[in-house]
Amino acid sequence: MKMxxxxxxxxxxxxxxxxxxxxxxxxxxxxxxxxDSEWPQFLGPYRNGISxxxxxxxxxxxxxxxxxxxxxxxxxxxxxxxxxxRVYTLFSKNDDEFVICLxxxxxxxxxxxxxxxxxKDTNGxxxxxxxxxxxxxxxALGARGKLYALNVKNGKxxxxxxxxxxxxxxxxxxxxxxxxxxxxxDMLLIEAGGNAFxxxxxxxxxxxxxxxxxxxxxxxxxxYTINGQRQIIFFSGDGAxxxxxxxxxxxxxxxxxxxxxxxxxSTSILRGNYLYGFDRGTLxxxxxxxxxxxxxxxxxxVGSLIYADGHLLxxxxxxxxxxxxxxxxxxxx
Length: 333
What we know:
Elements: E1 18-22, H1 23-26, E2 50-51, E3 67-72, E4 81-83, E5 86-93, E6 96-103, E7 109-117, E8 132-134, E9 137-141, E10 146-151, E11 157-162, H2 163-167, E12 182-184, E13 187-191, E14 197-201, E15 207-211, E16 222-226, E17 229-235, E18 240-243, E19 269-271, E20 274-279, E21 282-287, E22 293-297, E23 304-308, E24 311-315, E25 321-325
Parallel strand pairs: 2-23
Antiparallel strand pairs: 1-3, 4-5, 5-6, 6-7, 8-9, 9-10, 10-11, 12-13, 13-14, 14-15, 16-17, 17-18, 19-20, 20-21, 21-22, 23-24, 24-25
């Protein structure tokens, strides 16, 4: 099938030389067992970049939120997934790529599993994908296309696939596999590089269906109910497509498209009728039904953002963290 429509759903990338956790960064998620209070996958519990924590600080001191702990890791672009007081991510060190599990309160390593050799690229070395935790399993995709289901307690492999070998696929522009796994019902969904979108049985790894795709992209699938119909939205290197989760058949309806919000690394955040995100190197707010620009602000590079308790947590591509009020009225710190 030929993909032509364009949505703003790319994978978030951010170099992780050191993993640092602070009170405001975690948004309280490490201290609760409520699913809405966890961050178990890419872009949070509902894969929309929104935390549902409340009563957070509305301003910070000049030195920012208190750092609880900090540990050196290595190279990579993975963000973190947090579930049941544990933190999961991927990174590369020297010649090896790892999936790692840490204690969320102390940063102490609980286990690590070597997933592959280090992926090296002129745009940056290491893994690109973020793990997903569901029940007692963590699902992780390495930069060379090795997909794993691991026991959350000890990191032991439950099942695995080599996407490159099994689906004759490649990463986007040979820049490494970047899609973050998505759990939907009994399925685990992934963009398996160019040539295929794939649904696996999350328990045993068997292929449920495979849908053809165009060139590979850096994006991760999302699940939405649109007009009463559940859909899985993928974004290949050529554009967006929605498929039915039960069989992978195409089911897509375009509302509008333009080039006013050209995300590069991060996914935009939708709150009410307003979209907050990075148009290349400019942070913007726009009205979603008309694409009318409400405000814009430069100075963050191609950054990333999440939403919590009426504010945007914005991280620049140089590592500067800023708390911004989520309002269409004006850019307001």
